[in-house]
Write a structure and sequence with these properties.
This protein is of the alpha+beta class. The protein has a single domain, classed as NADH Oxidase. A four-stranded antiparallel beta sheet has the order 1-2-4-3, with helices on both faces.
Length: 213
């Protein structure tokens, strides 16, 4: 089921609390969502996060315990965890510049000024600020995921309610230089999910959209 437009899709979507375990995403649907996530905007274009897909029922059961028993983790068709880089420094920038060189075929010397500008921006942030910065980029990707899913009639539930340290341990993220930030469960809503019938509560246009002259 594809939506007519983005606003229709966003009106239709909600944070799905109960998924239909009998309905699964096709390989093409999951691939489409992951590609949309891959193409998400990010500050300076820097790759500050990665998305982890979890398929093993045993691993999901462990994650459910670390997510305070929330059933979405085991019932949804897919679990996507956004993890941010633990160390963001000049080497992060160098890797990105190398990628630009490979992708666009430009000389690295021509990017020296741009690289220096990004490195200056990174150096001006404290380790805590860099972590927050990376998390913001992950949340942009999460928004892209939910919008792409809704446009195709696929349900999602964004989730912050989990023990990040336990997730990192279960998934072995520290060894990869990553730490879990936020996740989303993806699939199709159950007819038994009463939340699907509730009216969406949002501010009116007048209260939400402010115009300053």
């Amino acid at each position: 089921m594809s939506m007519k437009n983005v606003t229709e899709a966003m009106a239709w979507r909600y944070a799905t609390k109960k998924f239909d375990v009998s309905k699964k995403l096709s390989d093409d649907q999951l691939a489409m969502l992951l590609e949309a996530v891959r193409l998400s905007p990010t500050s300076f274009g820097l790759p500050l996060w990665k998305v982890i897909t979890v398929t093993s029922p045993e691993t999901r059961a462990q994650l459910q315990q670390a997510a305070y028993g929330q059933t979405q983790v085991v019932d949804a068709s897919a679990v996507l965890i956004f993890a941010t880089e633990k160390i963001i420094d000049e080497h992060t920038v160098d890797r990105y510049i190398d990628l630009v060189v490979q992708t666009r075929g430009v000389a690295v010397e021509n990017l020296a000024g741009y690289a220096g500008y990004i490195k200056g921006a990174v150096a001006g942030k404290s380790p805590e600020a860099r972590k927050e910065w990376a998390a913001k980029q992950a949340y942009i990707a999460l928004g892209v995921l939910m919008t792409a899913a809704a446009s195709e009639g696929i349900d999602t539930c964004p989730m912050e309610g989990f023990d990040a340290a336990k997730f990192d341990e279960i998934l072995g993220l520290s060894a990869k230089g990553l730490e879990s930030c936020v996740m989303a469960t993806v699939g199709f809503r159950s007819e038994e999910d009463a939340h699907a019938q509730e009216k969406k509560v949002r501010l009116s246009k007048e209260d939400c959209i402010l115009q300053v002259k």
